[in-house]
Amino acid sequence: MLNMSDIMETITMIQEENLDIRTITMGISLIDCADSDIDKSCEKVYNKITTRAKDLVATGEFLEKKYGIPIVNKRISVTPISMLVGVSGGDPVKYAKVLDKAAHEVGVNFIGGFSALVQKGFSAGDRELIEAIPRALAETELVCSSVNVGSTKAGINMDAVKLMGEKVRLAAELTADKQCIGAAKLVVFCNAVEDNPFMAGAFHGVSEADTVLSVGVSGPGVVRSVLSKMPAEASMTEIAEVIKKTAFKITRVGQLIGTEAANMLGVQFGIIDLSLAPTPAIGDSVAHILEEVGLEQCGAHGTTAALAMLNDAVKKGGVMASSSVGGLSGAFIPVSEDAGMIAAARDGVLSIEKLEAMTAVCSVGLDMIVIPGDTPSEVIAAIIADEAAIGMVNSKTTAVRAIPAIGLAEGEELNFGGLLGYGPVMPVRTKSPAKMINRGGRIPAPLQSLKN
Fold first, then answer.
1. Which stretch of DSSP H or E encloses residue 248?
2. What is the residue-wise DSSP string for 291-312?
3. Is residue 377 domain-shared with residue 421, that is, in the same domain?
4. What pTM was estimated for this model as a whole?
5. Which is it for the CA torsion 303, 307, 308, 309, positive or negative?
6. What phi and psi values does residue 304 have, to the nearest 5 degrees?
7. Which helix (H) or strand (E) holds 87?
8. Which pLDDT tens digit goes with each residue over 86-104?
9. If you placed Cys at 20, which of 70, 219, 233, 270 could pair as Cys (CB 3.0 to 4.6 Å)?
10. Which CATH number is 343's domain given?
11. What is the largest CA-CA distance in the chain?
12. How far is CA 123 from the centre of its chain?
Protein backbone atom coordinates (compact mmCIF):
# COMPACT_ATOMS: atom_id res chain seq x y z
CA MET A 1 0.00 0.00 0.00
CA LEU A 2 1.32 3.42 -0.93
CA ASN A 3 1.37 5.89 1.95
CA MET A 4 -0.34 9.09 0.76
CA SER A 5 1.69 11.31 3.11
CA ASP A 6 4.93 9.84 1.69
CA ILE A 7 3.72 10.57 -1.85
CA MET A 8 2.83 14.17 -0.96
CA GLU A 9 6.18 14.61 0.80
CA THR A 10 8.06 13.45 -2.30
CA ILE A 11 6.03 15.82 -4.50
CA THR A 12 6.96 18.70 -2.18
CA MET A 13 10.61 17.70 -2.33
CA ILE A 14 10.54 17.91 -6.12
CA GLN A 15 8.41 21.03 -6.56
CA GLU A 16 9.68 23.21 -3.71
CA GLU A 17 13.01 21.84 -2.48
CA ASN A 18 15.00 21.13 -5.68
CA LEU A 19 15.07 17.33 -5.35
CA ASP A 20 16.30 15.82 -8.59
CA ILE A 21 18.15 12.95 -10.13
CA ARG A 22 21.32 14.85 -10.96
CA THR A 23 22.52 12.30 -13.48
CA ILE A 24 21.99 8.89 -14.98
CA THR A 25 25.38 7.81 -16.26
CA MET A 26 26.04 4.86 -18.55
CA GLY A 27 29.46 3.31 -18.04
CA ILE A 28 30.81 1.62 -21.16
CA SER A 29 33.93 -0.54 -21.33
CA LEU A 30 36.12 0.19 -24.34
CA ILE A 31 38.61 -2.63 -23.72
CA ASP A 32 37.36 -4.49 -26.79
CA CYS A 33 37.91 -1.34 -28.88
CA ALA A 34 41.69 -1.44 -28.49
CA ASP A 35 43.57 -1.74 -31.78
CA SER A 36 47.14 -1.16 -32.95
CA ASP A 37 45.68 1.18 -35.61
CA ILE A 38 44.38 4.32 -33.89
CA ASP A 39 41.88 5.09 -36.65
CA LYS A 40 40.36 1.60 -36.40
CA SER A 41 40.26 1.92 -32.62
CA CYS A 42 38.46 5.28 -32.88
CA GLU A 43 35.92 3.75 -35.26
CA LYS A 44 35.24 0.93 -32.79
CA VAL A 45 34.88 3.44 -29.95
CA TYR A 46 32.34 5.50 -31.88
CA ASN A 47 30.33 2.47 -32.94
CA LYS A 48 30.19 0.97 -29.45
CA ILE A 49 29.18 4.19 -27.70
CA THR A 50 26.52 5.13 -30.23
CA THR A 51 25.11 1.60 -30.13
CA ARG A 52 25.05 1.11 -26.37
CA ALA A 53 23.92 4.62 -25.45
CA LYS A 54 21.53 5.35 -28.32
CA ASP A 55 18.46 5.15 -26.07
CA LEU A 56 19.96 6.65 -22.90
CA VAL A 57 18.57 10.17 -23.31
CA ALA A 58 15.13 8.98 -24.48
CA THR A 59 14.93 6.61 -21.49
CA GLY A 60 15.75 9.42 -19.08
CA GLU A 61 13.15 11.69 -20.64
CA PHE A 62 10.52 8.94 -20.50
CA LEU A 63 11.16 8.32 -16.79
CA GLU A 64 11.04 12.05 -16.06
CA LYS A 65 7.54 12.21 -17.50
CA LYS A 66 6.41 8.93 -15.93
CA TYR A 67 7.39 9.84 -12.37
CA GLY A 68 7.56 13.63 -12.53
CA ILE A 69 11.11 13.56 -11.19
CA PRO A 70 13.64 15.82 -12.97
CA ILE A 71 16.62 13.94 -14.41
CA VAL A 72 18.95 16.85 -15.00
CA ASN A 73 21.81 15.17 -16.87
CA LYS A 74 22.34 12.09 -19.02
CA ARG A 75 26.02 11.19 -19.23
CA ILE A 76 28.51 8.54 -20.34
CA SER A 77 31.73 7.34 -18.74
CA VAL A 78 34.25 5.14 -20.53
CA THR A 79 37.38 3.10 -19.84
CA PRO A 80 40.43 5.33 -19.20
CA ILE A 81 41.52 6.29 -22.69
CA SER A 82 45.22 6.02 -21.80
CA MET A 83 44.78 2.26 -21.99
CA LEU A 84 43.72 2.49 -25.64
CA VAL A 85 46.53 4.93 -26.38
CA GLY A 86 48.97 2.41 -24.92
CA VAL A 87 47.90 -0.10 -27.57
CA SER A 88 47.44 2.16 -30.59
CA GLY A 89 49.93 4.96 -30.08
CA GLY A 90 49.25 8.11 -32.10
CA ASP A 91 47.70 11.41 -31.07
CA PRO A 92 45.35 10.94 -28.08
CA VAL A 93 43.32 13.98 -29.18
CA LYS A 94 41.88 11.75 -31.90
CA TYR A 95 40.17 9.75 -29.16
CA ALA A 96 38.90 12.93 -27.49
CA LYS A 97 37.35 14.10 -30.72
CA VAL A 98 35.63 10.77 -31.39
CA LEU A 99 34.29 10.74 -27.82
CA ASP A 100 32.93 14.25 -28.38
CA LYS A 101 31.36 13.22 -31.69
CA ALA A 102 29.70 10.16 -30.12
CA ALA A 103 28.44 12.19 -27.16
CA HIS A 104 26.83 14.73 -29.50
CA GLU A 105 25.33 11.92 -31.57
CA VAL A 106 23.51 10.30 -28.63
CA GLY A 107 22.64 13.66 -27.02
CA VAL A 108 24.31 13.39 -23.61
CA ASN A 109 25.53 16.35 -21.55
CA PHE A 110 29.08 15.12 -20.88
CA ILE A 111 31.33 12.13 -21.52
CA GLY A 112 34.06 11.27 -19.04
CA GLY A 113 37.05 8.98 -19.30
CA PHE A 114 39.79 10.91 -21.09
CA SER A 115 41.74 9.68 -18.12
CA ALA A 116 44.89 8.05 -16.80
CA LEU A 117 45.66 6.19 -13.57
CA VAL A 118 49.27 6.94 -12.65
CA GLN A 119 49.38 6.70 -8.85
CA LYS A 120 52.43 4.42 -8.90
CA GLY A 121 53.99 5.36 -12.23
CA PHE A 122 53.43 5.82 -15.95
CA SER A 123 52.62 2.88 -18.19
CA ALA A 124 52.25 2.88 -21.98
CA GLY A 125 49.91 5.66 -23.09
CA ASP A 126 49.68 7.49 -19.76
CA ARG A 127 52.18 10.27 -20.30
CA GLU A 128 51.02 10.78 -23.89
CA LEU A 129 47.42 11.18 -22.75
CA ILE A 130 48.34 13.63 -19.97
CA GLU A 131 50.36 15.75 -22.38
CA ALA A 132 47.31 15.88 -24.69
CA ILE A 133 44.73 16.88 -22.03
CA PRO A 134 44.82 20.68 -22.52
CA ARG A 135 44.43 20.39 -26.30
CA ALA A 136 41.76 17.71 -25.97
CA LEU A 137 39.64 19.87 -23.66
CA ALA A 138 40.14 22.97 -25.79
CA GLU A 139 39.18 21.21 -29.02
CA THR A 140 36.10 19.39 -27.72
CA GLU A 141 32.90 20.49 -26.00
CA LEU A 142 31.57 17.55 -23.97
CA VAL A 143 34.71 15.60 -23.04
CA CYS A 144 35.84 15.53 -19.40
CA SER A 145 39.23 14.40 -18.14
CA SER A 146 40.66 13.03 -14.91
CA VAL A 147 44.02 11.76 -13.67
CA ASN A 148 44.61 9.74 -10.51
CA VAL A 149 48.00 10.72 -9.04
CA GLY A 150 47.92 8.94 -5.69
CA SER A 151 46.37 6.29 -3.48
CA THR A 152 46.64 4.96 0.04
CA LYS A 153 48.18 1.75 -1.33
CA ALA A 154 50.66 3.37 -3.73
CA GLY A 155 51.57 6.76 -2.28
CA ILE A 156 51.70 9.93 -4.39
CA ASN A 157 53.38 10.13 -7.79
CA MET A 158 55.01 13.55 -7.51
CA ASP A 159 56.18 13.49 -11.12
CA ALA A 160 52.51 13.25 -12.11
CA VAL A 161 51.58 15.97 -9.60
CA LYS A 162 54.10 18.36 -11.19
CA LEU A 163 52.82 17.47 -14.65
CA MET A 164 49.21 18.06 -13.67
CA GLY A 165 50.00 21.47 -12.21
CA GLU A 166 51.29 22.41 -15.66
CA LYS A 167 48.35 20.86 -17.52
CA VAL A 168 45.69 22.52 -15.34
CA ARG A 169 47.23 25.90 -16.07
CA LEU A 170 47.61 25.18 -19.80
CA ALA A 171 44.00 23.91 -20.04
CA ALA A 172 42.85 27.25 -18.62
CA GLU A 173 45.12 29.23 -20.96
CA LEU A 174 43.90 27.42 -24.08
CA THR A 175 40.27 28.17 -23.16
CA ALA A 176 40.77 31.67 -21.75
CA ASP A 177 38.27 32.99 -24.29
CA LYS A 178 35.66 30.54 -22.92
CA GLN A 179 35.88 31.39 -19.21
CA CYS A 180 38.82 28.94 -18.83
CA ILE A 181 36.32 26.07 -19.15
CA GLY A 182 39.06 23.55 -19.99
CA ALA A 183 40.27 23.53 -16.38
CA ALA A 184 36.67 23.15 -15.15
CA LYS A 185 36.46 19.84 -17.04
CA LEU A 186 39.66 18.44 -15.50
CA VAL A 187 39.93 16.69 -12.11
CA VAL A 188 43.07 15.43 -10.37
CA PHE A 189 42.33 12.58 -7.93
CA CYS A 190 43.80 10.59 -5.11
CA ASN A 191 42.01 7.27 -4.49
CA ALA A 192 39.71 7.72 -7.50
CA VAL A 193 36.73 5.36 -7.54
CA GLU A 194 35.74 3.27 -10.54
CA ASP A 195 31.97 3.79 -10.36
CA ASN A 196 31.60 7.57 -9.95
CA PRO A 197 28.66 8.86 -12.08
CA PHE A 198 29.45 12.56 -11.49
CA MET A 199 31.46 14.73 -13.86
CA ALA A 200 34.10 15.78 -14.45
CA GLY A 201 35.75 12.85 -12.69
CA ALA A 202 33.75 9.91 -14.03
CA PHE A 203 35.49 7.03 -15.78
CA HIS A 204 34.46 3.39 -16.24
CA GLY A 205 36.70 1.22 -14.08
CA VAL A 206 38.36 -1.91 -15.44
CA SER A 207 36.68 -4.06 -12.80
CA GLU A 208 33.20 -2.92 -13.85
CA ALA A 209 30.86 -4.93 -16.08
CA ASP A 210 30.87 -4.21 -19.81
CA THR A 211 27.96 -1.73 -19.63
CA VAL A 212 26.30 -0.43 -16.48
CA LEU A 213 23.83 2.29 -15.54
CA SER A 214 24.52 4.33 -12.40
CA VAL A 215 22.58 7.15 -10.80
CA GLY A 216 23.61 10.28 -8.95
CA VAL A 217 20.85 11.72 -6.76
CA SER A 218 20.94 15.15 -5.19
CA GLY A 219 18.84 16.82 -2.55
CA PRO A 220 20.65 19.51 -0.52
CA GLY A 221 17.53 21.67 -0.73
CA VAL A 222 15.46 18.89 0.83
CA VAL A 223 17.88 18.47 3.74
CA ARG A 224 18.07 22.23 4.31
CA SER A 225 14.27 22.51 4.31
CA VAL A 226 13.89 19.74 6.89
CA LEU A 227 16.50 21.29 9.17
CA SER A 228 14.86 24.72 8.89
CA LYS A 229 11.76 23.29 10.56
CA MET A 230 13.65 21.94 13.58
CA PRO A 231 13.57 23.85 16.89
CA ALA A 232 16.65 25.85 17.87
CA GLU A 233 17.14 23.65 20.93
CA ALA A 234 17.33 20.41 18.91
CA SER A 235 20.53 18.52 19.72
CA MET A 236 23.15 17.52 17.17
CA THR A 237 22.06 13.91 17.73
CA GLU A 238 18.52 14.80 16.68
CA ILE A 239 19.78 16.73 13.66
CA ALA A 240 21.89 13.77 12.52
CA GLU A 241 18.89 11.47 12.88
CA VAL A 242 16.68 13.72 10.75
CA ILE A 243 19.36 13.94 8.03
CA LYS A 244 19.64 10.12 8.03
CA LYS A 245 15.91 9.70 7.52
CA THR A 246 15.86 12.33 4.77
CA ALA A 247 18.81 10.71 2.96
CA PHE A 248 16.93 7.39 3.10
CA LYS A 249 13.95 8.92 1.29
CA ILE A 250 16.14 10.64 -1.31
CA THR A 251 18.02 7.41 -2.01
CA ARG A 252 14.80 5.43 -2.50
CA VAL A 253 13.89 7.80 -5.32
CA GLY A 254 17.26 7.14 -6.94
CA GLN A 255 16.88 3.38 -6.52
CA LEU A 256 13.53 3.48 -8.31
CA ILE A 257 14.83 5.49 -11.27
CA GLY A 258 18.12 3.61 -11.56
CA THR A 259 16.60 0.15 -11.49
CA GLU A 260 13.93 0.99 -14.03
CA ALA A 261 16.33 2.81 -16.36
CA ALA A 262 18.76 -0.13 -16.33
CA ASN A 263 15.94 -2.57 -17.09
CA MET A 264 14.65 -0.47 -19.98
CA LEU A 265 18.14 -0.17 -21.45
CA GLY A 266 18.91 -3.87 -20.97
CA VAL A 267 22.10 -3.20 -18.98
CA GLN A 268 23.32 -3.99 -15.49
CA PHE A 269 22.34 -1.60 -12.70
CA GLY A 270 25.50 -0.19 -11.15
CA ILE A 271 25.29 2.06 -8.11
CA ILE A 272 23.50 4.99 -6.55
CA ASP A 273 25.75 7.88 -5.63
CA LEU A 274 23.78 9.76 -3.00
CA SER A 275 26.04 12.80 -2.86
CA LEU A 276 24.41 16.09 -1.97
CA ALA A 277 25.47 17.95 -5.12
CA PRO A 278 24.53 21.63 -4.92
CA THR A 279 23.67 24.11 -7.66
CA PRO A 280 23.89 27.92 -7.82
CA ALA A 281 20.09 28.03 -7.35
CA ILE A 282 18.98 29.61 -4.09
CA GLY A 283 17.93 26.91 -1.61
CA ASP A 284 20.01 24.15 -3.20
CA SER A 285 23.19 24.65 -1.21
CA VAL A 286 25.31 22.46 1.08
CA ALA A 287 26.63 25.65 2.69
CA HIS A 288 23.08 26.60 3.63
CA ILE A 289 22.59 23.19 5.27
CA LEU A 290 25.61 23.89 7.47
CA GLU A 291 24.17 27.29 8.30
CA GLU A 292 20.84 25.68 9.28
CA VAL A 293 22.82 23.47 11.66
CA GLY A 294 23.83 26.67 13.44
CA LEU A 295 26.74 28.46 11.76
CA GLU A 296 26.41 32.16 11.05
CA GLN A 297 28.10 31.53 7.70
CA CYS A 298 29.84 28.61 6.06
CA GLY A 299 33.56 28.88 6.74
CA ALA A 300 33.15 29.89 10.37
CA HIS A 301 34.84 27.79 13.03
CA GLY A 302 32.72 24.66 13.44
CA THR A 303 32.20 24.22 9.71
CA THR A 304 34.38 21.10 9.48
CA ALA A 305 32.57 19.44 12.40
CA ALA A 306 29.14 20.22 10.95
CA LEU A 307 30.19 18.90 7.54
CA ALA A 308 31.56 15.69 9.10
CA MET A 309 28.20 15.07 10.77
CA LEU A 310 26.31 15.81 7.55
CA ASN A 311 28.49 13.54 5.42
CA ASP A 312 28.23 10.63 7.87
CA ALA A 313 24.46 10.98 8.32
CA VAL A 314 23.89 11.03 4.56
CA LYS A 315 25.90 7.82 4.11
CA LYS A 316 24.12 6.05 6.98
CA GLY A 317 20.69 6.95 5.63
CA GLY A 318 21.61 5.98 2.09
CA VAL A 319 23.01 2.53 2.83
CA MET A 320 19.77 1.63 4.61
CA ALA A 321 17.81 2.51 1.47
CA SER A 322 19.87 0.62 -1.11
CA SER A 323 22.38 -2.21 -1.23
CA SER A 324 23.99 -0.57 -4.26
CA VAL A 325 25.34 2.67 -2.76
CA GLY A 326 28.70 3.58 -4.30
CA GLY A 327 30.53 6.30 -6.16
CA LEU A 328 31.54 9.15 -3.85
CA SER A 329 28.32 9.45 -1.78
CA GLY A 330 28.19 12.16 0.86
CA ALA A 331 28.37 15.94 0.44
CA PHE A 332 30.08 17.91 -2.31
CA ILE A 333 31.53 21.37 -1.69
CA PRO A 334 32.12 22.87 -5.17
CA VAL A 335 32.50 26.60 -4.59
CA SER A 336 31.22 27.93 -7.93
CA GLU A 337 28.25 25.53 -7.92
CA ASP A 338 26.91 26.39 -4.45
CA ALA A 339 25.16 29.69 -3.72
CA GLY A 340 26.14 29.63 -0.05
CA MET A 341 29.78 28.80 -0.81
CA ILE A 342 29.92 31.60 -3.39
CA ALA A 343 28.60 34.11 -0.84
CA ALA A 344 31.02 32.91 1.86
CA ALA A 345 33.98 33.12 -0.52
CA ARG A 346 32.95 36.63 -1.63
CA ASP A 347 32.76 37.73 2.01
CA GLY A 348 36.20 36.31 2.76
CA VAL A 349 34.80 33.91 5.38
CA LEU A 350 35.58 30.83 3.30
CA SER A 351 39.25 30.46 2.38
CA ILE A 352 41.08 27.76 0.44
CA GLU A 353 42.75 26.72 3.71
CA LYS A 354 39.35 26.21 5.38
CA LEU A 355 38.09 24.32 2.33
CA GLU A 356 41.15 22.08 2.54
CA ALA A 357 40.27 21.24 6.15
CA MET A 358 36.68 20.51 5.11
CA THR A 359 37.86 18.10 2.41
CA ALA A 360 39.17 15.77 5.12
CA VAL A 361 35.56 14.94 6.04
CA CYS A 362 33.51 15.43 2.85
CA SER A 363 32.98 13.33 -0.28
CA VAL A 364 35.72 14.65 -2.50
CA GLY A 365 37.94 17.75 -2.31
CA LEU A 366 38.78 21.24 -3.53
CA ASP A 367 36.15 21.47 -6.22
CA MET A 368 35.51 24.32 -8.68
CA ILE A 369 37.93 26.66 -6.94
CA VAL A 370 38.71 29.77 -9.01
CA ILE A 371 42.25 31.02 -8.40
CA PRO A 372 44.20 34.02 -9.76
CA GLY A 373 45.18 33.76 -13.40
CA ASP A 374 48.87 34.33 -12.67
CA THR A 375 49.13 31.40 -10.22
CA PRO A 376 52.32 29.48 -11.12
CA SER A 377 51.98 25.81 -12.12
CA GLU A 378 54.14 24.80 -9.12
CA VAL A 379 51.59 26.34 -6.74
CA ILE A 380 48.76 24.48 -8.51
CA ALA A 381 50.81 21.27 -8.22
CA ALA A 382 51.35 21.92 -4.50
CA ILE A 383 47.60 22.39 -3.97
CA ILE A 384 47.11 19.03 -5.70
CA ALA A 385 49.80 17.43 -3.52
CA ASP A 386 48.19 18.72 -0.31
CA GLU A 387 44.81 17.30 -1.27
CA ALA A 388 46.32 13.99 -2.38
CA ALA A 389 48.05 13.72 0.99
CA ILE A 390 44.74 14.14 2.83
CA GLY A 391 43.22 11.37 0.69
CA MET A 392 46.20 9.06 1.00
CA VAL A 393 46.54 9.28 4.77
CA ASN A 394 42.80 9.12 5.45
CA SER A 395 42.04 6.33 2.94
CA LYS A 396 39.44 8.47 1.18
CA THR A 397 38.89 10.03 -2.20
CA THR A 398 40.15 13.57 -2.58
CA ALA A 399 40.42 15.67 -5.70
CA VAL A 400 41.29 19.10 -7.05
CA ARG A 401 39.36 20.95 -9.74
CA ALA A 402 41.03 24.36 -9.74
CA ILE A 403 40.49 26.96 -12.44
CA PRO A 404 43.19 29.58 -12.98
CA ALA A 405 41.20 32.60 -14.17
CA ILE A 406 43.52 33.82 -16.90
CA GLY A 407 43.62 37.62 -16.94
CA LEU A 408 41.69 37.96 -13.67
CA ALA A 409 42.93 38.82 -10.20
CA GLU A 410 41.74 38.14 -6.66
CA GLY A 411 38.21 39.45 -6.06
CA GLU A 412 37.09 39.34 -9.70
CA GLU A 413 34.67 36.65 -10.89
CA LEU A 414 34.55 33.91 -13.49
CA ASN A 415 31.12 32.88 -14.80
CA PHE A 416 30.65 29.46 -16.42
CA GLY A 417 26.85 29.48 -16.54
CA GLY A 418 24.52 26.54 -15.95
CA LEU A 419 25.31 23.98 -13.28
CA LEU A 420 28.99 25.01 -13.22
CA GLY A 421 27.90 28.40 -11.89
CA TYR A 422 30.20 31.31 -11.12
CA GLY A 423 32.82 32.04 -8.55
CA PRO A 424 35.05 34.74 -7.08
CA VAL A 425 38.78 34.47 -7.63
CA MET A 426 40.10 33.21 -4.27
CA PRO A 427 43.53 34.16 -2.91
CA VAL A 428 46.31 31.56 -2.78
CA ARG A 429 49.56 31.50 -0.82
CA THR A 430 52.29 33.14 -2.87
CA LYS A 431 55.40 31.63 -1.25
CA SER A 432 56.89 29.20 -3.75
CA PRO A 433 56.84 25.39 -3.34
CA ALA A 434 58.83 25.01 -6.58
CA LYS A 435 61.88 23.33 -5.00
CA MET A 436 59.72 20.59 -3.47
CA ILE A 437 57.61 20.09 -6.60
CA ASN A 438 60.69 19.88 -8.84
CA ARG A 439 62.18 17.08 -6.74
CA GLY A 440 59.75 14.61 -8.35
CA GLY A 441 59.82 10.99 -7.23
CA ARG A 442 57.14 9.45 -5.08
CA ILE A 443 55.82 10.13 -1.59
CA PRO A 444 55.75 6.59 -0.14
CA ALA A 445 52.47 5.00 0.89
CA PRO A 446 51.61 5.43 4.58
CA LEU A 447 51.82 2.53 7.00
CA GLN A 448 48.06 1.93 6.91
CA SER A 449 48.46 0.77 3.31
CA LEU A 450 49.72 -2.58 4.67
CA LYS A 451 46.36 -4.04 5.62
CA ASN A 452 46.55 -7.40 3.91
1. helix 236-265
2. HHHT-SSTTSTTHHHHHHHHHH
3. yes
4. 0.92
5. positive
6. -65, -40
7. helix 81-88
8. 999 999 999 999 999 999 9
9. 70
10. 3.20.70.20
11. 67
12. 25
